Amino acid sequence: MLLALFAAACSNVADGNAATSPSNSSEVSMQDAQSVARQIGVTFPAGAKVEHADRIEGRDNAARLALVMSKTDWAGWRATLVPGNAPPFSADANFHLGPDEGDWAPGKASGLTTVQVPWREGNESLNLGYAPTSDDQVRVFLFWHQL
Fold first, then answer.
1. pLDDT value of residue 25
2. Can you list the alpha helix ranges (DSSP code H) found in the chain?
3. Which one of 29, 36, 60, 94 has the fewest CB atoms closer than 10 angstroms to its CB?
4. Cα gap 127→64, rounded to integer Å
């Protein structure tokens, strides 16, 4: 399924049909991040700091967010995003976040674990990864895409 998404994205790029709107971490505005969050269908905790927000438009739209938040905020937010019957977070699922590209760098996050869950009645997919940082916080990666 994810392989098909990457193939479609590559095809879109080759055809010149894909548009990516990346954001440098120092340039990410809360307004941009909120816009991406609305597209995904999430509202992140008020204390979260946005490090990356972008959209990938093509045959199947996609969007990515990278945030840093307290472990407490992450525990509460995760409970709203991941159903109880979802598989456990695993490093084996990190590939669901896609490759590192510019400021989007889940591959550089030490201790990263990921889960993929169906989103919006299974018509979309939400991939969530998180890794501990210093100071009782976590870095959270969200990669959403249409199916």
1. 41
2. 2-15, 30-40, 71-81
3. 29
4. 9
Q: What pTM, to 2 d.p., does this model score?
A: 0.81
Strands (E), the chain: 19-20, 49-57, 62-70, 113-119, 124-132, 137-146
**Residue whose tokens read 């525990």:** 75
Q: Could you read off the pLDDT of 42-54 as tens digits, one per residue?
A: 999 989 999 999 9
User: Is the separation of the CB atoms in 114 and 96 below 8 Å?
Assistant: yes
Is residue 23 a contact partner of residue 52, using CB atoms and an 8 Å limit? yes
Backbone angles phi, psi at 138, to 5 degrees: -130, 150
Task: List, in sequence order, every residue forming a beta bridge with 65; answer none if it has no partner.
Answer: 53, 142
Sheet order of strands, 19-20 included: 19-20, 49-57, 62-70, 137-146, 124-132, 113-119
Per DSSP, the three-state class of 38 is helix
Q: How far is CA 146 from CA 42, 99, 113, in A?
A: 15, 18, 22
Residues in the chain: 147
Is residue 142 within 8 Å of residue 128, measured between CB atoms?
Answer: yes
